[in-house]
Amino acid sequence: MLIFRQLFDPQSSTYTYLLGDARAKQAVLIDTVFEQAARDGALLSELGLELVCTLETHVHADHITAATLLKRRFASAIAVPAESGAEGADRYLAHGDRVEFGGRHLTVRATPGHTRACVTYVLDDESMAFTGDCLLIRGSGRTDFQEGDAHAMYRSVHTQILTLPHACLLYPAHDYRGLSVTSVAEERAYNPRLGGDVSESDFTGYMDNLGLPHPKKMDIAVPANLRCGRPEGEATGAEQAWAPLTYTFAGVTEIHPQTLEEIALPVEIVDVREPDEFVGPLGHIRGAKLIPLGQLAARVGELPRDRPLVMVCRSGARSGQATLFLQRAGFPRVANLSGGMLRWRGDGHAVDTGAR
Ligand SMILES: N[C@@H](CCC(=O)N[C@@H](CS)C(=O)NCC(=O)O)C(=O)O
Ligand SMILES: [Fe+2]
Question: pLDDT per residue over 161-188, tens digit each?
Fold first, then answer.
């Protein structure tokens, strides 16, 4: 019934959570990351889910939310904590509010401390809670900016989070050591700052002495998140604009055969199969340049930079690898022909068979 995915942004160590109702095919995303919008969009499409809402646990200081990018693409509602001061949201969530997706819902609990407006989202059956930067795994969020308050955090954790059922799984907004999940029972017993017999003054004494540098992106991230991640300029860099392209959860930008057939601007078609396949029974696309995958790294200098590249192979697998390689090598406009020559021919597009 419940679809659940934990997604990670390695640059900011942020976890994004996808929760979906498998029957109603509706989903929400908690704490998205601007640079990961295409990834999240691809996952939603591949799972056949409608994004009804993006939720923030707080105004993040270390990364920019993808809420506005996703709203533009999926018409999803943007939900933020009521106290956050963010402008441009569709819902301002207060303690006790519910966010529904299909037949499931999350309930909002106010958990101030890391920031004044932080909230925790608790799943309807109390089997999972998303604690943002309040309770982290064997740790807690910092309390030294955005009206953070260690006293408030101690009370939030003890009245709103550790009072959930012992088996309730806790999912934070970050982990900087690679840990992914914990539980109420574990944190009650083993959280070194907040568990066991640690008192409120023990905790505030601990937090007064963290001495962490501010997040590197703080001066950019906070203002951007206060407008729900709406870009100041429109160019996002997240999507290539030269053709209607798709993006797979595996991370590959793809072009559909029909789109390639109809494209108006000049593109360079690069076929990465072996020479015998190029002139074999499947043929090749007229004008395609043959560079077998194994030679691509040595021959990148032969590729033009003034027009987009479309990578082709038999099924789309090898050319998918070539697409990723060329993007990493600094070619911004490159796409994989979805389904390769098999789909190109299957869809009835023309091929050449002679050598070139
Ligand atoms: N080095 C990171 C710092 C990230 C940071 O300060 N994270 C906050 C959450 S927004 C925190 O509470 N960190 C707790 C910790 O690092 O122990 C950056 O520059 O982004
Ligand atoms: Fe944070």
Answer: 999 999 999 999 999 999 999 999 999 9
Judge if the beta carbon of residue 142 lies within 6 A of ligand 1.
yes
CB within 5 A of ion ligand 2: which residues?
133
Ligand 1 atom closest to Cα of residue 12: 20
d(CA 54, CA 101): 11
Q: How far apart are CA 118 and CA 110, in angstroms?
A: 6
The whole-number pLDDT of residue 251 equals 85
**What is the identity of the amino acid at 142?**
R
DSSP letter string, 39-102: HHHHHHHHHT-EEEEEE-SS--SSS---HHHHHHHH--EEEEEGGG--SS-SEEE-TT-EEEET
Residue nearest to atom 3 of ligand 1 (CA): 215
User: In angstroms, what is the span from residue 255 Cα to ligand 2's centroid?
Assistant: 37
pLDDT per position as a tens digit, 19-77: 999 999 999 999 999 999 999 999 999 999 999 999 999 999 999 999 999 999 999 99
Dihedral Cα 281, 287, 291, 296, nearest 10 deg: -140
Q: Is the CB of residue 62 below 6 angstroms from any atom belonging to ligand 1?
A: yes
Pairing of strands 253-255, 246-247: antiparallel
Measuring CA to CA, how many Å separate 284 from each of 105, 206, 338? 51, 66, 15
Is residue 23 within 8 A of residue 103, CB to CB? The reply is: yes
Strand partners, 132: 172
User: Mean pLDDT over residues 315-319, rounded?
Assistant: 98
* pLDDT for 231 beyond 90: no
Place of tokens 């999803």: 76
CB of 212 sitting under 6 A from ligand 1: yes
Closest ligand to C-alpha of residue 153 is 1
- Residue % of the chain over a pLDDT of 70: 97
| pLDDT for residue 240 | 65
Distance (Å, whole) CA 64 – CA 90: 18
Q: Judge contact between 38 and 49, C-beta under 8 A.
A: no
